[in-house]
Amino acid sequence: MRQEPLSVTGGETLASALRRRLEADIADGRLDPGTRLDEQDVAQRFGVSRTPVREAFRLLASDRLVELRGRQGAVVRSIGVHTLIEMFQVMGELEGLCARLAARRASPRQLERMTAIHARLEAAAESGPDLFYDVNQEFHEAIYEASCNVFLAEETRKLRNRVATYRRRVTRMPDRIRDTIREHAEIMDAIAGRDPERAHSVMRSHLTLLGDNLLDFIAAFE
């Protein structure tokens, strides 16, 4: 196994740096739900001892990203369809609040950044769902930043990372890319127009699976 460099930022422990890397692997779909994480394999991958790996697994378990199964080790958590739908509903409210606050607080620079990312998103529509999803994440991150509420951004990001693998599946649903571009334009219009109520409403609708989209998602999930 080829060893990968592990960057440790100021104030981070080895365990928290490992947690960050493994969380990114889960969010990016490199570690699918149900994947077993082996202590020794992870330790060899990053060139560390097994002690920080165990602590990283505990940190991931506290965020409900993995399950600790005794001698079986850690397993990337799978989410049932009904729980997942509930999580999407909560996600819609959290991101809706981010959009509401952004409509009140976004600076001209932040509005320009959203517009630039949206233009890149439109260009990425022809490059397939993976690149589109990555740029889409940037767009949502820009709204978290524009909310000017660090705690809200952190909590929203935590839940987003728990459902990230499944949000990728939504991106692959028929017409979802086209609909996402249209919905993002509505969100930007509400934020730039300083309309908090509308910003919240359109963002919530953007994240919540309803009607045919919900039925299509359940069919694909099962």
Summarize the model shown.
Helices cover 71% and strands 4% of the residues.
Description of the molecule:
The protein is mainly alpha-helical and 222 residues long. The chain has 2 domains: 14-76, Arc Repressor Mutant, subunit A, CATH 1.10.10.10; 81-221, GntR ligand-binding domain-like (Four Helix Bundle (Hemerythrin (Met), subunit A)), CATH 1.20.120. It has 10 helices and 3 strands. A hairpin with a 5-residue loop joins strand 2 and strand 3. The two termini are 34 Å apart. 27% of the residues are buried.
Question: How much helix, percentage-wise, in residues?
Answer: over 70%
Broad structural category: mainly alpha
In this structure, how is the largest beta sheet organized? 3 strands, antiparallel
CATH architecture of the largest domain: Up-down Bundle
Unreliably modeled segments: none
**In order across it, which strands form the biggest sheet?**
1-3-2
Amino-to-carboxy terminus distance: 34 Å
- Number of strand segments: 3
- CATH fold name of the largest domain: Four Helix Bundle (Hemerythrin (Met), subunit A)
Order of helices and strands: HEHHEEHHHHHHH
Please tally the helical runs, counting DSSP H or I stretches of 4 or more residues.
10
CATH superfamily of the largest domain: GntR ligand-binding domain-like
What amount of the residues lies in strands?
under 5%
Question: What shape does the CA trace take?
Answer: globular
As for the number of domains, it is: 2
Give the C-level CATH assignment of the largest domain: Mainly Alpha
Radius of gyration, whole Å: 19 Å
Overall pLDDT? 88
